[in-house]
Amino acid sequence: MNGLLTFEDKMVELIERVSGFFSAFSFAFALEILILFCLIFYVSKILRDNDATRLMVLYWVLILAVGVMSEIESFPLVTKNFLFYFVIMMSMFILVMFNVEVKKSLLDMRSSALHASEKNVSGGLMEGRSNEDVEKCISDIIKALQNMSKNNVGGLVVLSRNNLPRQVLQSGVMVDAEISSQLIEGIFFPKAPLHDGAMIIRGHKIQAAGCFLPLTQKTNYPKDFGTRHRAGIGITEVANVISIVISEETGIISVIKQGNVQRYADYDMLKAVLKDYYWHELPLSDKKR
């Protein structure tokens, strides 16, 4: 009987504690928890997407360490409020460090929202096209790039998935034409009116030409990188696209992804880049090659 009463007493105590927790629960407390969760999640996503795994681990370790200290009486200065502001300040510091990546992330989300309805209507990049059409697009782009390289004709091509800011497209001339090596070379002909700007390719079409792109603010690049290269790097820092630059001085072809430059791109590299761009449009047998 005494054992039963003891059990009932424990249950009553437990219920009282739970009731006390919910009675003390406030909207402000819930908002703080939501802010911390969203902030930690977003910072972790930025670090993970940019291969900063060690920094992400350090970020989590510091948060957990301060969280544990806030529960120990030996650290009277480390309170719940201290933990809240510590997470905010540390998160802001990391976001400032990765400001370019944050800008790119926000632009990608904005572009995805703006073009969601357009994508639903237009479907995939090569919807309704055969595998032969995909291979022809790849072949024509490579042919044009290599011809321009041989003749030292400068050019800047951006491979987009309809995820560029509208102002970039509006800065040039809408073309909306089928891809062909002759058209690509014609647009970049030195005396052509659109040759100085960037060409935007989306799927099987040349979407626009003569476009102006944001320039990278980084300076740790070779001295022979001019405005065309800086623009090719800059657009990959703010949007999830691939840019291909042909140097007017040397004819060197460079492939740029997420601000990383691969110079001296040959046929095999260009083929791999374009297959990756058209990845889901190619048959399984081609993907394994």
Could you explain the architecture of this structure?
The chain has 289 residues and is an alpha+beta fold. Helix content is 57%, strand content 13%. It has helices at 2-24, 27-49, 53-69, 80-97, 99-122, 131-150, 166-170, 181-187, 227-238, 267-277, 284-287, and strands at residues 155-160, 173-178, 198-202, 205-211, 242-246, 253-257, 260-262. The chain has a seven-stranded mixed beta sheet, sandwiched between helices. It starts with a helix and ends with a helix.
Main β-sheet: number of strands, strand sense, barrel status? Answer: 7 strands, mixed
Stretches where pLDDT is under 50 for at least 5 consecutive residues are 116-123, 280-289
The count of β-strands is: 7
CATH architecture title of the largest domain:
3-Layer(aba) Sandwich
Shape: elongated
What is the fourth-level CATH superfamily of the largest domain? DNA integrity scanning protein, DisA, N-terminal domain
Mean pLDDT: 81
Q: What name does CATH use for the topology of the largest domain? A: YojJ-like (1
- Approximate helicity band: 55-70%
Structure characteristics:
289 residues, alpha+beta, YojJ-like (1, 11 helices, 7 strands, disordered C terminus
Topology:
Elements: H1 2-24, H2 27-49, H3 53-69, H4 80-97, H5 99-122, H6 131-150, E1 155-160, H7 166-170, E2 173-178, H8 181-187, E3 198-202, E4 205-211, H9 227-238, E5 242-246, E6 253-257, E7 260-262, H10 267-277, H11 284-287
Parallel strand pairs: 1-3
Antiparallel strand pairs: 1-5, 2-4, 3-4, 5-6, 6-7
Helix pairs in contact: 2-3, 2-4, 3-4, 6-8, 6-10
